[in-house]
Amino acid sequence: MMTTERRVLWVTGAGSGMGRASAVAAAASGWRVAVSGRRANAVAETATMIRDAGGEALELAVDVTDEDALGEAHGRLVDTWGDVDGVVLAAGLNTPRRNWGDQSMTDFAAIVDTNLTSVARVVDLVLPGMRRSGRGDIVVVSSRSGWRFSPGAGVAYMSSKTALGALVASLNDQEGAHGVKACHLCPGDVDTDFLAMRPEVPGAQQRAQMLTADDIARTVRFVLDSPAHVRIDELAVSPIGQR
Length: 243
Fold this sequence. Notes:
- By secondary structure, this protein is an alpha/beta fold.
- It has helices at residues 17-28, 40-52, 67-81, 105-133, 155-175, 204-208, 213-224; strands at 8-12, 32-37, 57-61, 86-89, 136-141, 180-187, 234-237.
- α1 (17-28) links the parallel β1 (8-12) and β2.
- The radius of gyration is 17 Å and the shape is globular.
């Protein structure tokens, strides 16, 4: 009986929230999933969830802003499973100090480094392997603020997320000939721990009206499971009632 080898997926920001949910959902869909995050214990928890459900997981505790460590993590992944077939880039950062009147340039640089530059770092690492195989799936978990002006999201966050749209468009323009396709995924309000970074943390009633991490994971899985000839350039997903 012929068997099909599982494709390899790398998920950043997989220690919690949308990244964790996406990693678990992708594993259930048949991917081998490498899970990355800054907190080793959180990454281990995600990997355990995948394995307990019968999937394959590789733990890569790494900060995506550490270029050398990120390269080492990618090397370990390739040594273990081979070239990466897909990536879900879900690592993100924001701060309660979001406006020109109270933000710091240190925070601004850290947010851009995490939300934008680290995405480019990971993509740059996996592209050679995708070109070799003639196919690659890249899902950039951005934000509604990267799709539509959202002043409450903050100057640094909104600027970094908006730039991801151009990054994705450049990938589709330049790498499509190699079978590589990218999606700029723009979630609206999602009930995750990331809400703790807001100036005013939403209460239970507000959270109940938001999307869940599983809603986004289902969307990520839809993009990843689309046929090779189907490219979803940009996808905005919002809870009913969000303006």
